[in-house]
Write a structure and sequence with these properties.
With 261 residues, the chain is α/β, with parallel strands linked by helices. Helices cover 41% and strands 15% of the residues. The protein contains 8 helices and 8 strands; from the N terminus they run H-H-E-H-E-H-E-E-H-E-E-E-H-E-H-H. The strands form 2 sheets. The chain has a 6-stranded mixed sheet with strand order 3-4-2-1-5-8, sandwiched between helices. The model has no long low-confidence stretch (mean pLDDT 89).
């Protein structure tokens, strides 16, 4: 009987260790502004500091990729998806690199036959492909409906785009920092953790770190602590791979959309 009780305890402890380890790595992987910025700094000063930090980590001549896993369909300029993308693009614009890419990942999660990735590009007045006015190439992943799908569905885009050259990737997203234990369990941290896990098989893709959009723009509000803890725990332990957590099983397709099947 004691042996039967011991095994579940060991499994639970192991799962908690994996969660703690991944949340700690995410926290330590924040892009740190260079030089450091104070709370009363202007937004331009803050953006430049984060961009300078990224620039210093990218070897000369190598492309930098800003990966933005969106948070639902952006239906206004106050929506989390739009604000995350806006901050990520603002930082990328200031990064010193010859080749710059930004990936918007979100599927048909709204009420119209338009992916969240496409809607974000339109709201930012950016076309898919190279935008000469800002020197940034926009890549759209228009099918993902979960954070895990953001990562998995963008993997092919990264593999096909960077066949013969190394690229340096930054994940942009919301943080939920915990003082006790120095953990980050936010949506961005979960995306970063999943990217590190799933892009390890892409030798050309180097994940630099997590751009904490909520620390750059404090009007971006993260999800509730309970939701962040639960989904970070599940993601760290691979449970998010189960079909139950795939929104395609619960969401009715929009008739006529390419993603409807």
């Amino acid at each position: 009987m004691k042996k039967l009780l011991f095994l579940p305890i060991v499994i639970i402890c192991f799962m908690f260790f994996v969660f703690y380890d991944q949340a700690l790595i995410a926290s330590k992987s924040h892009i740190i502004p260079s030089p450091p910025v104070a709370n009363d700094e202007s937004i331009d000063r803050v953006i430049n500091a984060y961009a300078d930090s990224i620039s210093s980590q990218v070897p000369a001549g190598k492309p930098v990729v800003m990966f933005v896993p969106l948070n639902g369909f952006p239906d206004s300029t106050t929506h989390l998806s739009y604000k995350n993308a806006q901050v990520a693009l603002a930082v990328l614009n200031k990064v010193k690199a010859e080749q710059k890419y930004i990936i918007f990942s979100e599927g048909y999660t709204g009420s119209t036959c338009l992916s969240g990735a496409q809607a974000t590009g339109l709201m930012l007045s950016m076309n898919e492909g190279y935008n000469a006015n800002i020197g940034v190439t926009v890549l759209l992943e228009p099918h993902a409906k979960t954070t895990l799908e953001n990562i998995l569905f963008s993997k092919k885009i990264l593999r096909d785009t960077f066949v013969n050259q190394d690229a340096y990737l930054v994940v942009a997203g919301m943080t939920d920092q915990k003082t006790i234990g120095n953990l980050d369990v936010g949506h961005g941290a979960r995306a970063f953790m999943l990217a590190k896990q799933n892009y390890a098989s892409l030798p050309r893709i180097h994940v630099l770190g997590l751009l904490p959009t909520t620390e750059i723009d404090n009007t971006i509000i993260s999800y509730t602590h309970a939701y962040n803890f639960q989904t970070m725990f599940l993601g760290a332990n691979g449970v998010l791979n189960l079909p139950f957590f795939n929104k395609k099983f619960a969401r009715k397709p929009i008739a006529g959309c390419p993603d409807a099947k």
